[in-house]
Amino acid sequence: MVRRARVWHRWLGFVFGLQFLLWTLGGLYFSWTSLPNVRGDDIRKAPQPLSLADLPSAGLGEAMSSFRGLHPKAEILDLRWSEDVGKRGHFLVRYLEKGVEHHARLDPEKATLLPDIEPEEAGAIALNGLTIPARVAEVRLLERVGQDHEYREKPLPAYAVRLSGEKGYTVYVGRETGQIHNIRNTKWRVFDFLWMLHIMDYRGRDDINNRILRLASVLGLITLASGYLLFFLTRRRRRKIYPAAILLLLLAARPSDAGAQTQERMRPRTRFQQVTALEENSGMILWKGRLWQHVDGGGGPLLFETDTTDGRILRTVRVGGTANRDWEDIAQDTAYIYVGDFGNNADGARKDLAIYRVRKADIAAAPDNGEVPSQKIGFRYPDMPDSVAAPNRTDHDCEAMVCLDGRLLLFTKQWASKATVLYSLPAEPGEYTAERLDSFDTDGMVTGADIDPSTGRIVLTGYTPMLARFLWLLYDFPGGMPFRGRHLRVPLAGPAQTESVAFIDSDRLFLGSERFRILPARIEILEIGGLLPSRLE
Question: Is the dihedral of CA 523, 529, 535, 537 positive or negative?
C-alpha cells in the first residue's frame, strides 16, 4: 500500500506541480495588486454632479420620433441621460434590432439623432476622461473581437485609443455611445493572463466551471491526500515530543480572542441580480419595506429606492449639496438617513471625510428624480497619517457605519491589518475629530454594517483578500461598545465581493455584493433564525 501511494504521489506531483506553482503565483499577484490600478479607475475622471437644471425641458419626444422613423422595428431596452466628458448632454438609447444590440444618441436641443463618433472625437473623449496628461498614439476601430480579447463583452463597434507611454494604456470608446467603456493597461493584461492560468480557461478566460479546472482540482486533492497518507504510514511509531511542539498544540487548542465561530459555512440564497445602475452597490438600508441603496465613488450623489422582490428601481432621489467622491455605507435612525462619504482606499489620507444627514420626511415627499437637502457632518481621524505609501495599504479606510443612541459608529476597513477600529461621532452637523473607542480582530476586511432596532444586535460583513466572505454578530454589549460583549463569526459559502448588509427582521438579512469580473452583482437573503436562538439567547 505504501509503495502504491508513493507511485501515485510521485507522478501526480510531477504532472500537476507546475499547475500548483501557477495557482500560487497567480494568488500572490492577485492579493498584492490594487484593483483600481488594474481596472484603470485610478486615472479615470469622476463624473460631475448633475442637477435638475441641467436636464432639458423638452426635445425628447421629437428626438424619439426621429429615432422611430429610422428604426421602426427596434425594441428599446434602456433610455438614460448621459454626458460626454467635455461635451453637451444627450439621451442614450439602448435598443435591439434584428437580434443585435445597438446604441443611439439623441440630441434633445435639435430633436435629432447624433452621428456616430469619429476617430478624432474618440481620441478627444479618451484624453478628456483621464486625470493624467497623455497623448494619443493610435486610434483603431474594432467591429469584432475574440473571446479572449481584452475588450470582450462590451458594446461594439468601438475605438481602441492607444496612448503613448510605458504603462501601455488603451482606452476603449464606443462608436455609438461616445462613452469610455474600458481602460486597459499592462497590469490588467498580466492580471488577465494569470487569471486565465489560475482558472484554466484558455479561451474565454471567465468560466470557473470548466472541465479542465474540475479535473485538476480533483487530482490535486488526490495528490495532497496521498501525501498525507504517506506521512502517517511512514512516520515512526515513537517520537520525542519537544516542548515547542507542546506549546504549539496548546496555542492551537486555545480559544480565539475574536470569539466563537459557527462550524459550517452558511449559504445565502440569491434574491435577485442587481440592475446595471446598481452593479457597484456599496451601501443599503431597509426602510418602509423598500431597499434604499447607493453606489460607490463616481456614481453620482443618488439614493435608489428598489423593490425587495426583483430589484426594480422605483424612485431615484438626488442628495443636494453633495458629490459622491466615495460613498461607502448608509445608516438610519427614526428621523434621518446618514450617507457616509468616507471611502479612503485610494490615497489613505483624505482631508474631506464626511457624512451627509438627510431628513426621512424630505425623502418621503420627494418625487422621482427629485432633490433633497442635506447637512454635512465633517470629520477627521485623530491618528490618521499625513500620507500612505500606496493605494489599498491604509488602515483608515471605512465602509461600515451604524447609528446607535444618537451617535454614529464607524468600523474601519483595515487593508494592512485585516482588522477593524471603532470610531464614534455625534450624529449632528458640524466638524469633528472622531473618537477612537476600541479595536477588534475580524480576520478580514469589514465592508458593511447594520443594527437591528428590536434587539440592538449589530452585524458586520466583509471578506478576506481571496473573497472568502464572513459575518460578525455582536450582541449583549454595554452601551456604545459593541466589541465588549459577545460575538459570533459566521463564514459564508460562495465567493463574492459583499459590500453591504441590512436586517430584514431579527431572523433574516439582506446581503449586497457588487459585480466582480464574472461574479454578478446580486442581493441575497441569509436566514439566521436557526442560529440566533441557540447561540445568542
Answer: positive
Judged by phi (left if over 0) then psi (alpha if -120 to 50, else beta), residue 300 lies in: left
Per-residue pLDDT of 269-295, as tens digits, reads 999 999 999 999 999 999 999 999 999
- Measured between alpha carbons, how far is 29 from 465 in angstroms, rounded to an integer? 11
Element of type H or E holding 79: strand 75-83
Q: Please state the φ and ψ torsions of residue 421, each to the nearest 5 degrees.
A: -120, 140
* pLDDT tens column, 97-147: 888 888 888 877 777 778 888 999 888 888 888 888 889 999 999 988 887
Half-sphere exposure (Cβ direction) of 141: Cα atoms closer than 13 Å: 10
Pairing of strands 180-184, 170-174: antiparallel
State the angle between helix axes of 2-31 and 211-234 in degrees (0 to 180), rounded to the nearest 10: 130
Residue 350 carries which DSSP code? -
Cell reading at 322? 453633495
pTM to 2 decimal places: 0.55
User: What is the sign, positive or negative, of the torsion defined by CA atoms of 17, 22, 27, 32?
Assistant: positive
Q: Is 285:330 a contact under the CB 8 Å cutoff?
A: yes
CA–CA distance, 450 with 333 (Å, rounded to integer): 11
Tell me which residue has cell 497518507: 229
Match 457632518 to its residue by C-alpha cell. Answer: 377
| Whole-number Å distance between alpha carbons of 49 and 320 | 10
Terminal Cα-to-Cα distance of the chain (whole angstroms): 51
Backbone angles phi, psi at 268, to 5 degrees: -70, 160
Q: How far is CA 177 from CA 51, 54, 74, 86, 152, in A?
A: 22, 20, 17, 15, 16
CA triple 380-381-383, angle to 5 deg: 140
Cα–chain-centroid distance for residue 313? 19
